[in-house]
């Protein structure tokens, strides 16, 4: 069995604010070591459960956070930026399941460091379904027929996952107090939980169905201000809804929608004087 693991950072045990997830800040090195350990608990247990191949994709910020020297020796790691499919780079139909580690809630929702890709996004929609990183990535997995069998992160990420994907296994390593404060397990307790939940997820994987995306999805992104929407609407094929900060893009499939989202949010990030 082949397993795909996407690892973000905001949902990692004990991490509560930007100083722990920003490579320019003083707490980052501690944060990335805990992130690496946490990913490794899941990876190692997956191999222990009979997985023959585990592909790990570093999915946070510049996507070069995981310390490869500490990962299980049989792991393959995708690291670095730019990736055509970002947080789901390398995922295809050959995988029996996907696990998302260190995930967080979507923008505009309660949850530690909640956001959707960039801080310029208020909401993202696939047709009329509101999604964040978790949901969008799960749709890409579903395009390939791959179920997301487990999500590890804060309590709000777990709720989001359970609302989208019936029978998914969730591992809650911390509870949200505010967007920058949490009640967290210790790394030692999180290790036990993540290993137990990885076993459970693999045993339960046949009950979890892929989150199949709609054909020809309409992508809509609501931006925080009008300048961001203007920048995003420079991409060919987009339409800025009159009187709103929402930009639409009619995609041929979810893969095109995903890449359009990456381009639109990157363009919007160029806005200055917010």
Automatic annotation (TrEMBL):
CDD domains membership: DAP_dppA_1 (cd08663)
Binding site residues for Zn(2+) 1: 8, 10
Active site, UniProt feature: 115 (nucleophile)
Superkingdom assignment: Bacteria
Annotated keywords: Aminopeptidase, Hydrolase, Metal-binding, Protease, Zinc
GO molecular-function terms, A-Z: aminopeptidase activity; metal ion binding
Binding-site list for Zn(2+) 2: 8, 60, 104, 133
Name listed for the protein in its UniProt record: Aminopeptidase
Species this protein is from: Cytobacillus kochii
């Amino acid at each position: 069995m082949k397993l795909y693991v996407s690892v973000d950072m905001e949902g990692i045990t004990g991490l509560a604010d930007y100083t722990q997830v920003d490579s320019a800040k003083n707490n980052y090195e501690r944060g990335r070591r805990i992130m690496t350990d946490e990913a490794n608990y899941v990876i190692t247990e997956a191999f222990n459960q009979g997985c023959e191949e585990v592909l790990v994709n570093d999915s946070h910020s510049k996507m070069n956070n995981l310390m490869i020297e500490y990962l299980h020796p049989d792991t393959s790691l995708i690291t670095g930026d730019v990736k055509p499919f970002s947080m789901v780079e390398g995922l295809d139909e050959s995988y029996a399941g996907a696990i998302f580690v260190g995930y967080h809630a979507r923008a505009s929702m309660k949850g530690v460091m909640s956001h959707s890709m960039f801080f310029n996004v208020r909401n993202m929609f696939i047709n009329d379904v509101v999604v964040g990183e978790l949901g969008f990535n799960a749709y890409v997995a579903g395009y390939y027929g791959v179920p997301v069998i487990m999500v590890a992160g804060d309590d709000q990420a777990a709720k989001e996952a359970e609302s989208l994907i019936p029978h998914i296994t969730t591992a809650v390593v911390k509870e949200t107090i505010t967007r920058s404060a949490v009640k967290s397990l210790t790394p030692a307790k999180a290790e036990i939980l993540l290993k137990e939940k990885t076993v459970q997820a693999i045993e339960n994987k046949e009950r979890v169905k892929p989150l199949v995306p709609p054909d020809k999805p309409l992508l809509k992104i609501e931006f925080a201000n009008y300048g961001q929407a203007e920048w995003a609407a420079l991409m060919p094929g987009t339409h800025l809804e009159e009187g709103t900060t929402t930009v639409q893009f009619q995609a041929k499939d979810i893969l095109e929608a995903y890449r359009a989202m990456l381009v639109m949010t990157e363009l919007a990030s160029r806005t200055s004087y917010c």
